[in-house]
Amino acid sequence: MTEERKAYLRSRRPFTPGVGRVYTGAGSSGTYRCIDSWYGAAVLQNIRSGWTFFAHGVGCYADGAIDWDYSTGGSFAKMPEKEEGEVWQES
After folding, report:
1. Which domain holds residue 65?
2. For the residues of 37-63, what is the DSSP string, one character each?
């Protein structure tokens, strides 16, 4: 593992996602909308598939990407509709 990769992994900090914000998953191409959150945990929804789950131990890296220690309660949910002209942007 390179020193750069080690530094990146060390940059992870506990994180509580903001409700309504969209985040990129660390090490993945997935993007996730925060539906609800509590300290270090959140209900996240994959914006492409609708897969919705409770993420435990959410962390954020120096580049703004997030991950979580484990997830529970996953299921597919109906995707919310965008308002006319609305653009969902990553945080």
Report:
1. 8-76
2. EETTEEEEEETTT-EEEEEES-EE-TT
